[in-house]
C-alpha cells in the first residue's frame, strides 16, 4: 500500500495496515484517556482541571496518523514520549490507586503508539536509504 501524498520515490513500498490502524486506535484511546482522566475520572483538582489541555497536541496528530502520513507518524512517535514520561511518573508517584492505574494505561498506550509508528515508517525509510545509494 502506498500513500498518495508521498513522494514518487516511495512508490512500491508496502506499509503494514495493521500497524497503521493499530497506531491510530492507540492514539485515539490515548487522546480520550487524557481528556477523561483530567475532567472526570481522577482530576488533579476536584471538579475537573484545565490539565485536560494536555490532549491538545494529540488532536493535531490524529488526522495525519489516520491518513497514514509518514511525516506525521514520525513526529507523533516523538510526541508520545512526553505522554510516556507523564504516565510513568504518575503511575509510580500518584497517591490515588485509580490515578496509578490510569498512568499505567497511559504508559502502555504511548508505547503502542511509539512502536506502531516507528515500525510503520521503517520500510519507507529503508527504501529511501536504498534509493539514495543508487
Automatic annotation (TrEMBL):
Keywords assigned: Membrane, Transmembrane, Transmembrane helix
Pfam families linked to this entry: DUF2069
Transmembrane segments: 21-40, 46-66, 73-92, 104-121
Record's protein name: DUF2069 domain-containing protein
Organism: Pelistega ratti
Lineage: Bacteria, Pseudomonadati, Pseudomonadota, Betaproteobacteria, Burkholderiales
